[in-house]
Design goal:
about 475 residues, mainly alpha, two-stranded antiparallel sheet, two-stranded parallel ribbon, 22 helices, 4 strands, elongated, binds zinc ion, Reverse transcriptase zinc-binding domain-containing protein, RVT-Znf
Amino acid sequence: MMNQLGFPGDFVDLVMECVTTPKFSLMLNGTMHGFFKSTRGLRQGDPISPLLFVLCMEYLSRIPHKMSEHHLFQFHPRCQAFSDSTGLLANKHKSAIYCCGMPERDCARIGCLYVLIKRVTAAQCDVLVDRMISRTKIWSSRNLSYTARVHLINSVLLSLHMYWAQIFILPKQVLQNVNKVCRAFLWSGQAYSNKPSNISWDRSCCDKKYGGLGFRDVFKWNIASMGKYVWAIASKQDNVWIKWINAVYVKDGDWWTYQPKASASWYWKRICATKEMLKLVYTQAEFVAITHYSVKGVYEKIIGVKPLIHWECMVWNRLNIPKHRFICWLAVQERLQTTAKLARIGISNSATCLLCGQYDEEHSHLFFNCPYSSRCIMALKVWLNLSALSCTLLQLLRVTSHSRLTKFRKQVVYAALAAAVYFIWHSRNSSFWNSSVPTMQHVVSKIKQSVKERILYVMPKKVSRKDSLWFMSL
Ligand SMILES: [Zn+2]
């Protein structure tokens, strides 16, 4: 044992001399009776005893350490007993093992996700989609408004994806499934649905200033998060991984023009492919000049600039009642399922307005050329003291945004318009489903009441005294 631990031969011989030579004698009735040799052990009181003890214990502690690497190593039966009697266990949900450079067979046995060896298959990522589906199943029992669903998708479903996307390059199929679950949940409140959506998913994924709902495009977000590794290599960060990459793959070559060999690992090839995609939006100098890599910043760069919309301030106005925003978002884009629209695609027999029964129910008619809605708007104009003559939704928006009203007053007008859109659409639906239309007076008072309540609740702090007096007098 001491030879194995690397002690010099002479020293080992000396120790062995001490261990092998002791002789013992038995004393019976006060006299010694011969000697017998000891086969192991030191003389009594030998000072090297504790030192040898330490060496033996060192050997013992090395054995479990070595054995823990053995493939048959398992929970010791006594540890199992300890666990059973105390109830203490390792939490598998909180524990993760990441293997690198191990034979595939061993990894599969441990059952972990392995990096850098093999491609991440769609089946391995099913956990992600399953988790999303289980979340939506919990929510689907509740009757959530569209706005609430938008929030849940953004804050819960897509952040699950965000966590994964920073570690793996997710297979296309998985990303498509992520989109599918989110889209189904948005439009139907369920995890699975074939219901056609009013607005394409790509459009919903735009930023709010470009007319979308501010969802992330999962494909592009994945590129932006993986771009962090490309950037780390390009900016030659000082860590082991980068050194390893440089030693094994790049080898003093130029990283920006580097092409992976056909024999390289799947993961490495994907990182190189990510670099190629980033090259479409960045020049080498621009990319290296980034001092602090921000996934969001790079994502926005990949998305690029799109035509701005002019109704953002109205639809996403802070003073709007949250559930009015979504209907308003659809209405300004003329994407509500009006009867005229349903008639065009052959679902409805008649295209006539459900409120007045005289004209085709187009968006421009409903908001607000219809006799019913135009009277509502007239009442609101009187209420808010607006002099604008125009009566369609988009015209009213434009006039308001160009008017000389203070910011707060504009926001109040927007909130009232959004409420009008919501309640008129509500009346129209009530006519469709219940065959009864609320009276115009009822609708107007509902609009006034809800707008006042909401604004009193979220009143901005920086409102001039004049404006707040004006609002109180409404
Ligand atoms: Zn009408």
